[in-house]
Specification:
The complex is a heterodimer of chains A (about 110) and B (about 110). Chain A is mostly beta strands. Chain A is built from no helices and eleven strands. In chain A, the strands form two sheets. In chain A, strands 2, 4, 5, 6, 9, 10 and 11 form a seven-stranded mixed β-sheet that branches. A four-stranded antiparallel β-sheet of chain A has the order 1-3-8-7, with no helix packed on it. In chain B, a hairpin with a 4-residue loop joins strand 8 and strand 9. Helix content of chain B is about 0%, strand content about 55%. The termini of chain B are far apart. Chain B has no helices and twelve strands. Classes of the chains: A mainly beta (about 110), B mainly beta (about 110). Chains A and B meet through strand 4, strand 5, strand 9 and strand 10 of A and strand 5, strand 6, strand 10 and strand 11 of B.
């Protein structure tokens, strides 16, 4: 089945560590996105990529990094510079505006 | 700047009641797109509808209906005869014609009580 796969579903990180969240899609979509969801704040855009080997910062990119080496993959690294990384992270893909974005099931990251 | 406001943080209704979720948006684009998504407890956002700025016709899909009014910059969502399975967080989102960014509201948590 076509869709977006995020892994892992739950992730625990010690302070000072970098962690990478995986996002893979087999929908052949050009655009991919990473959003962060915190209670009461909706979804905030971290990074997005319109094509392979290109990506742009969203509204809250500080402390995060991404790569887009393959069309189907858009991993997100949460670095130690991210001061408050505990959140729910959602990956999405789409053919860009105006079509709808398709979302993965999310990764819940907790700093311990 | 683009912005989406969902003023209702949480709504509780009894099953079979009708409920309307409000969405107000701001944009300077003449062409833009509005979306509604449902987020069940599993976490994945499920697409419900897309509407472009040139199409102000209301839409009905089963128990769901949407009212788009450019004059008030609103794109409200009504669930008729609500059911417990409708319990979720609902997000309204906005996108421009040439932007690949989707701007989301803060969401409305709907609780439908049996």
């Amino acid at each position: 089945d076509g869709g977006i796969t995020q892994s892992p579903k739950y992730l625990f990180r010690k302070e000072g560590q970098n962690v990478t969240l995986s996002c893979e899609q087999n929908l052949n979509h050009d655009a991919m996105y990473w959003y962060r969801q915190d209670p009461g704040q909706g979804l905030r855009l971290i990074y997005y990529s319109q094509i392979v080997n290109d990506f742009q910062k969203g509204d809250i990119a500080e402390g995060y990094s991404v790569s887009r080496e393959k069309k189907e993959s858009f991993p997100l690294t949460v670095t130690s510079a991210q001061k408050n990384p505990t959140a729910f992270y959602l990956c999405a893909s789409g053919q860009g505006s105006p079509t709808e974005a398709f979302f993965g099931q999310g990764t819940r990251l907790t700093v311990v | 700047a683009q912005k989406v406001t969902q003023a209702q943080t949480e709504i509780s209704v009894v099953e079979k009641e009708d409920v309307t979720l409000d969405c107000v948006y701001e944009t300077r684009d003449t062409t833009y797109y509005l979306f509604w998504y449902k987020q069940p407890p599993s976490g994945e956002l499920v697409f419900l509808i897309r509407r472009n700025s040139f199409d102000e016709q209301n839409e009905i899909s089963g128990r769901y209906s949407w009212n788009f009014q450019k004059s008030t910059s609103s794109f409200n969502f009504t669930i008729t005869a609500s059911q417990v399975v409708d319990s979720a967080v609902y997000f309204c989102a906005l996108s421009g014609e040439r932007t690949y960014k989707y701007i989301f509201g803060t969401g409305t948590r709907l609780k439908v009580l049996a």
